[in-house]
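Reply to dn_fold:

You asked what the input looked like. This is it:
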Amino acid sequence: MKEHSQCARCAIPREEKACLVRGGKGPKFCPTLRYEGLLPSVIKEYEDPELREFARLASVQEGEGYAGRRPGGYVPHPVKTRVEEVIEFAKKIGAKRIGVAFCVGLQREAGLLSDLLEVHGFEVVSVCCKVGAVPKETIGVKDEEKIKIGEFESMCNPLLQAEILNREGTDLNVLVGLCVGHDAIFLKRAKAPCTVLAAKDRVTGHNPLAALYTLHSFYRRLKERPSSSKEPADPPDEEDH
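and this is what came back:
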């Protein structure tokens, strides 16, 4: 069986990684080394002028997110929030009309973002997830599977969100808190380039990485394998009180 690429499990020191330095090293699952033959055809795709310029500006934006850059021994000093970077990048690519696809539960945040984008000269088209007021039963959701059982409940409608933004000719779409799965549908259907400003996480205030940062403590239950024979839980940490 062919081994899959596993960059997330690479133990090669950063200064020696094949993906970061010329002639670097990589484990047997390293895609930089395993797919050297694929690289020329993929790089050739960047010869498309529009794609090449988009990618170039994305890299420029990446660099501008750090202050005091200089040759040799530079310690990264990030200075820009993602909100700032979205605005700056939209200007770089010449976007005029920006679509905001948001969860209805984050209408306030979507409104703040819309106001900010307009201050910076963009035309904003915003569409909430419940657009169309289509009952969840339409896609086979049972009454007991709804959030509010026994009541009318609109389904999230990412296909319609995307289609409306497509028809209104957005140059860039910004996702704000779409549900897991609904965001995937939106991204698949949207014609304009998309970026994510906020990923929904109802428990952590839309900071999904919080669960990963606390896997050693509050969220260590997530590491338990779904089986009848569970391994003993890790001992409590000092901050678990």
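The helical segments are 31-34, 39-45, 49-64, 82-92, 107-119, 158-167, 182-189, 209-213.
Hope that clears it up.
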